[in-house]
Specification:
single chain, TAT_signal_bac_arc, about 475 residues, signal, alpha/beta, DUF1501, three-stranded antiparallel sheet
């Protein structure tokens, strides 16, 4: 390597080190790794639309979130779960008592039970603003139990990292694929955002993630409290402020090789512009706050910030028409103490209350019918106990929240879509221990959201490899 190049790279790294020491580099570079020109997108409706993905990390025990209420189906559930949990008389049981369930009726009149800790979601379901998608998971093609030995299965079943990546990619092929379906969808709708074009359509309040990584966009990461403060860099402030600013300017202006210079200088300056614009727009003095009260929980804080970002994105300083948000909540890997008061029940309470508050916030800003919120999670969990909790399984239940179709929204809510299986340990749809073989694929799930957002049918096979293996490329829960 020529001496000048080594020297330039050394100066670059030294400058970066100065920024890291101030906590500034993380605000400047990771969140804008892929700002650039979006691919041309087909014309779409002029109204605003946003997707909000909530990833439940660890594998949600979703068959304890939505429980069959009909007596015969409930009895199967209870038998598989080892009976009703009782800390004294049945500490190995995972079942929820039928008389404690929050009962809801779907559009056909069939009753279902929500975990009592999830009761805050009942009004959403009853109003048609919430739907459940049953037995979704990673699939290469439709698969029955009798075909397990003859048909391909997704790689690395039951592995957290691998199944998270497959959910975020939207398919189970190409285990090293670097793009997620949210990011690839963002590539195709970014050109509709003609205001602050430097802000990508993919915004995360839960850090960088594969889901929002496209070919031309990466997530712009903000904290649940808002964009990172950059005001400590100033030529008119303290000596420390001036030092930080000088380090940044040296970093951006250093004569590295042309590729490094263009990449980092462009990203750095663009991120400062976007950061300033967002901080200004979100300032309560400029109308960037909302009045809706949210619980003091991590997920609620994330969704509150998303509601504020959606609000200000309608203003002239941002002017976006399509956005894809990402939030996340961990703790769902309940191998032990699952039935304890601070474990699964507490997580379900946090999710349900956050959704209810987010719904109210969207109503406040007039965006209830223009935002669709949904969950993803690694996998379901075994129906029977490992002695203190549950283990990794396969298919599970996800939820979708949005404006009810009956009230001008897009969601066909108050329904349980897909095929909710009989909850047997070794039945026709389970592999043993109640590991359910999915009957709906993550490709179909993701393609339904991407289509609603405005991605054309011709793009679906590229974004969701293997989608053509399934008879219904889209599901019917979104109009």
């Amino acid at each position: 390597m020529p001496h000048s190049t080594r020297h330039d790279r050394r100066r670059f790294l030294q400058g970066l080190g100065a920024l890291v020491a101030t906590g500034t580099a993380g605000a400047l570079f990771p969140q804008l790794e892929l700002i650039g020109q979006a691919l041309a997108a087909a014309p779409a409706p002029g109204d605003y639309r946003a997707l909000v993905c909530i990833f439940l990390y660890g594998g949600n025990d979703s068959y304890n979130m939505l429980i069959p209420h009909a007596q015969a189906e409930y009895d199967l559930y209870l038998q598989s779960r080892g009976g009703v949990y009782d800390a004294t008389s049945n500490p190995f049981g995972l079942g929820i008592a039928r008389d404690s369930l929050a009962t809801v009726a779907d559009g056909s009149g069939k009753n279902w039970g929500l975990h009592p800790a999830f009761a805050a979601a009942k009004p959403l379901f009853d109003s048609g603003e919430l739907a459940f998608l049953a037995n979704i998971g990673s699939l290469v093609e439709p698969l029955r139990k009798s075909e397990l030995a003859s048909k391909p299965q997704p790689p690395y079943l039951f592995s957290h990292n691998d199944q998270q990546r497959q959910w975020m990619r939207g398919h189970s092929t190409g285990t090293h694929a670097a793009n997620g379906w949210g990011g690839l969808s963002g590539d195709r709708i970014a050109s509709l955002n003609t205001g602050l074009t430097a802000l990508p359509p993919t915004i995360s309040v839960s850090g960088n993630n594969l889901y929002q990584s496209g070919a031309s966009v990466l997530p712009y990461a903000v904290a649940s409290s808002g964009p990172t403060e950059l005001a400590r860099m100033s030529s008119t402030g303290s000596q420390a402020d001036a030092t930080r600013l000088a380090a940044l300017e040296e970093l951006l202006n250093a004569s590295q090789d042309q590729q490094m210079r263009a990449r980092y200088a462009g990203l750095g300056r663009t991120s400062i512009t976007v950061n300033t614009a967002l901080r200004t727009a979100l300032d309560p003095a400029n109308g960037g706050d909302i009045a809706t009260l949210f619980p003091a929980t991590p997920l609620s804080a994330q969704l509150r910030m998303i509601a504020r970002l959606i609000k200000v994105s309608q203003g002239p300083s941002i002017g976006h028409k399509r956005q894809i948000y990402f939030a996340g909540l961990g703790g769902f890997d309940t191998h032990d103490l699952q039935m304890g008061p601070s474990r699964h029940a507490a997580l379900l309470t946090q999710v349900a209350q956050a959704l209810a508050a987010f719904r109210a916030g969207l109503q406040e800003i007039g965006m209830l019918n223009r935002v669709t919120t949904f969950t993803m999670s690694d996998f379901g969990r075994t129906l029977n106990s490992n002695g203190n909790g549950t283990d990794h399984a396969w298919g599970g239940v996800q939820l979708v929240m949005g404006g009810a179709a009956a009230n001008g929204g897009s969601l066909q809510g108050r329904q349980v879509w897909g095929d909710y299986p009989l909850l047997e340990l070794d039945g026709e749809q389970s592999m043993g221990r109640g590991r359910m073989i999915p009957t709906t694929s993550i490709q179909q799930y993701g393609a339904t959201f991407a289509h609603w957002l405005g991605v054309g049918d011709a793009e679906m096979a590229t974004i969701f490899p293997g989608l053509g293996n399934f008879a219904a490329p889209r599901l019917g829960f979104l109009g």
